[in-house]
Specification:
Blueprint: E1 7-10, E2 18-21, H1 31-43, E3 48-51, H2 71-83, E4 87-91, H3 101-107, E5 110-112, E6 116-120, E7 123-128, H4 138-147, H5 150-157, H6 161-180, H7 192-202, E8 206-209, E9 216-219, E10 224-227, E11 241-246, E12 249-254
Parallel strand pairs: 1-6, 2-3, 3-4, 4-5, 7-8, 8-10
Antiparallel strand pairs: 2-11, 6-7, 9-10, 11-12
Length: 259
C-alpha cells in the first residue's frame, strides 16, 4: 500500500487538553447516545474535541440538514453550539464522508484530512479514522475507493433526498447482515505493520484511530496505536469512551448517559 500524505495541525501553546472520540453511529434510533454526545460536547473541559469519523450512522448529503425537523438538522445545531465553546474538528469516516467541508466551515468546525499529524505538548500524534489501515479487507477497500470518487458522489447526491435515504438504508442493512455472520474476532482489523510504517513516515510515536470498535492500546514495531471505542448508550447497553491527551500523555475515560 502506498503511504499517504500527512496533513499537519499545530495546537496553540495555551491548550491543556485535547479529546478524541469516534464511532457513535448516531441516528434517529439512538436518542440516548445522541443526548450523551450533545451533553459531552457542551460540557467538556477540553480545549478541543476531535471527532474521528462515523459520528453519524449515515450522512446522505448536507441538504438533509435544511429539512425542518430532520435528524441532520439537530446534529448541525449541536455542532454549531459546540464550536462556539471550543475547537471542534471533524474527520470523515466510512459512514459520514458526505458531510461537506462547506457546511463544516459554516458551522465553525475544523475539517481534518485523513490522516493528520497533530502537534501539541511538544509531541506529535497521528490521528486517522482507521479504515485505510484495514488492508486485508480488500472488498471494503474497493468499496471505499468507489464511494469516495467524485463521480459516484455526484451521481448519488443528484438523486432526490428520499431516494438517497432509501439507498443508504439498503446499504446499511446489507452491511449489518454481513457483519452478523462473523464473530467479533473475525471483524476486520488494522494491519500493525502498515500502522508502524505510517508512524515512521509521520515521525510520530503514537496514533489514535477508531473504526474497528476494539478499544485497546497496541505496542507496534515502531510506536503505539490507541483504538477508540464505539458508543452505545441505548438501554441496556452503556458503553463509550474518549481519549484525553495532555502533557502527561493519553488516558481513556468512560462516557456516561446525559443527566
Amino acid at each position: 500500500m502506498t503511504l499517504p500524505a500527512f496533513s499537519e495541525v499545530h495546537a496553540p501553546p495555551g491548550w491543556r487538553c485535547i479529546e478524541f472520540l469516534s464511532d457513535l453511529h448516531l441516528g434517529p434510533d439512538t436518542p440516548r447516545t445522541f443526548e450523551a454526545w450533545a451533553h459531552h460536547l457542551n460540557t467538556s473541559r477540553a480545549d478541543a474535541v476531535y471527532l474521528l469519523g462515523d459520528v453519524f450512522e449515515v450522512w446522505v448529503g448536507d441538504d438533509a440538514a435544511a429539512e425542518p425537523g430532520s435528524f441532520e438538522r439537530r446534529c448541525v445545531q449541536v455542532l454549531r453550539q459546540a464550536a462556539h465553546q471550543r475547537r471542534v474538528g471533524f474527520m470523515a469516516g466510512n459512514r459520514d464522508f458526505l458531510l461537506g467541508h462547506d457546511l463544516l466551515a459554516r458551522l465553525g468546525i475544523e475539517a481534518l484530512a485523513d490522516p493528520t499529524v497533530l502537534t501539541a505538548f511538544g509531541q506529535r500524534l497521528l490521528i486517522t479514522h482507521g479504515d485505510l489501515l484495514c488492508t486485508a479487507d480488500t472488498g471494503y477497500q474497493a468499496f471505499r475507493r468507489q464511494v469516495r470518487s467524485t463521480d459516484w458522489q455526484a451521481a448519488f447526491l443528484a438523486q432526490p433526498l428520499a431516494a438517497r435515504r432509501q439507498q443508504a438504508r439498503q446499504m446499511r442493512d446489507a452491511s449489518q447482515a454481513a457483519q452478523r455472520q462473523l464473530s467479533p474476532d473475525q471483524w476486520s482489523d488494522v494491519d500493525d505493520d502498515e500502522a508502524a510504517q505510517w508512524l515512521q513516515q509521520a515521525s510520530a510515536p503514537a496514533m489514535v484511530h477508531g473504526h474497528t470498535h476494539k478499544p485497546a492500546s497496541h505496542a507496534l514495531a515502531i510506536g503505539t496505536r490507541h483504538v477508540l471505542g464505539d458508543w452505545d448508550l441505548e438501554a441496556p447497553m452503556l458503553r463509550g469512551d474518549v481519549l484525553r491527551w495532555t502533557a502527561d500523555g493519553l488516558t481513556r475515560h468512560a462516557i456516561s448517559p446525559a443527566p
